[in-house]
Amino acid sequence: MLKNSFMYKFFSYFLIIILTFISCQENPKSLFKNNTISSAHPLASLAGKKMFEQGGNAFDAAVAAGFALAVVEPSMSGIGGRLQAIFHKASGKIGGVDASTQVPMQYKPTDEKHSYGYKTIGIPGVVAGLLKLQIENGVLPIQKVMEPAINYAENGFRILPGEAYRQQMSKEIFEQYEGTKTHFLNADGTSYKSGDLFVQKTLALTLKAIANRGKAGFYEGDVAQKMVKDIQSNGGLITLEDLKNYQALNSEVLYGSFQGCKVHALNLPSYGAITIQILQILDHLKIGNNEEDWAEKISKATELAYMYREHQNDRDSLNSILSYHKAADWAKQIQDQKLNLVSQNTSNMPGSWIASLGHTTHLTTADKNGNVVSLTQTVGPNMGSKVASKELGFLYAVTLGGYLGEYKPGDRSNSHITPTLFMDEDKVILAIGAAGGSRIITAVTQVAHRYLAQKSDLKRALFLPRVYPFEDSLWIEDHDGVKQLNADFNMDNYLFKMIDEKARFGRVHAIAYDSISKSWIGAADPDWEGTVENHITK
Known about the structure:
By secondary structure, this protein is an alpha+beta fold. It has 19 helices and 18 strands. The chain has a single domain, classed as Gamma-glutamyltranspeptidase, small (S) subunit (Glutamine Phosphoribosylpyrophosphate, subunit 1, domain 1, 4-Layer Sandwich).
């Protein structure tokens, strides 16, 4: 009896130890004092914060905010669009998700060009990408994660000035399509104004189908059938098989060096290699303590890297682009010679490379355990294809038609999207990404340089003016908030062109690690309507 009692106690204690160990593994001690999210819309940031409040991690917050952005900022992104994300897990793993739009298998390459309409629609990727992120890395049920987005769609939200303006810009095109007109214009044919209650009950039903059935709720069944029927009835190419076969993929993570840190970014269809190349060139440049020298050096580094945008598919070229030693050679060319700005021949470039207005949306999240997500999603140019199916309620992205370049069936659309992580040993010290079309890369690299090389605090790094080399001039951001910082530019230099407009140089959302307070610090681009939300851990 005594023996049995002893064995019972032994096994009881042993079981307690095992369970405690497992619990500790599943719920590691907090490494940081807070959870943080920075996104392009206050309601999306609040959606992410809500996940933290309910015990979710950075992945849950990112996915909740991603779905929310699809509802509250449809001009910039949506479930009919594409997505690229890079992440760091508390375990140390660095990975990425490719959920770019894909060319339908029935597509036949053509010289016919379209900037919007049904013929520009490719296979959407956002839903598959968000679900992959959450299912593989999140801790909350997908129904819980999607609650904020469904609520915003079903009950409505007050539309912000920027979103109202962008929708108004596309009003005339909306009128061409019954579905778009139904969902994005009032009953009297007018556009929504700032402060109007924007209700999207049809979109809410589509989101509920995803929440209830997961990936099959969008890529199969009723939603898929409605999608295909509408698209094919109007000259588009997507089939049920295209949708069923679509998969969000693991991205190839590239790496380079900058300011003693390891830089992680994504290979095609993201332009991470170009981002890394610019940073590595800058790492070898001597930049004077003045804005003019900084602008010229940044511009020349960018131009050299941009020359290789169309060579990223080739592995040997990719290795050259990523070479730190090669970057040193390019930096020496810049340092030793006064290179003139390269006049770019824009006639043969895809529209996305030279678009005057940027688009897309970005969010970054980080949690108490060290999980970090940098995620960019888009529908292409403002309001994407300008097409929404009447029975579904969301806009499709532009994929075909030449805006992104020429593709063949099954290809995924490349873009300037470049979510990026900077690591110091095993810790993320800066997670960053941007919206802004072709200005995404320049926004990311310049903010990173301001923060890590110039040692500006994060908010100031986002505030300081940015530059963009375009054709035979160098554009300088010069709106009211930064004019005083540009006073020392020599305007006799014909290369400089001051651009007095907000949001033309990319919109950044970033999170950095503060080693003193052991907390995350977030920043939202001051040129946009986004916010940062913090959740203090207990």
